[in-house]
Amino acid sequence: MVVHENKEGFDKLNKNRLLTSIATSSLLAVTIGTTLKSELER
After folding, report:
1. Is the dihedral angle over the CA atoms 33, 35, 38, 39 positive or is it negative?
2. Chain-centre distance of CA 15, in angstroms?
3. pLDDT digits (tens, 9 = 90+) for 6-36
4. How many CA atoms lie within 13 A of 19 on its CB side?
C-alpha cells in the first residue's frame, strides 16, 4: 500500500520536473530568439 502511494508521488514529481524542463526550455528559446532578432535589427 505504502509502495503504491510512493510510486504515485514519484510519478507526479517526474511529471512536474518534465513540465518545468519544458517551460525552462521554451523560455530559453524565446530569450535566444529575441536576442538574435535584436542583434539582426542593428
Report:
1. negative
2. 10
3. 788 888 889 999 999 999 999 999 999 999 9
4. 6
DSSP state of 1: -
pLDDT number for residue 2: 61
Provide the sign of the torsion angle of the four alpha carbons 13, 18, 23, 27, taken in this order.
positive
How far is residue 20 from each of residues 3, 10, 31, measured CA to CA in Å?
25, 15, 16
The C-alpha cell that represents 30 in the structure block: 524565446
d(Cα 20, Cα 33) in Å, to the nearest integer? Answer: 20
Query: Which parts of the chain fold into alpha helices (H)?
Result: 2-41
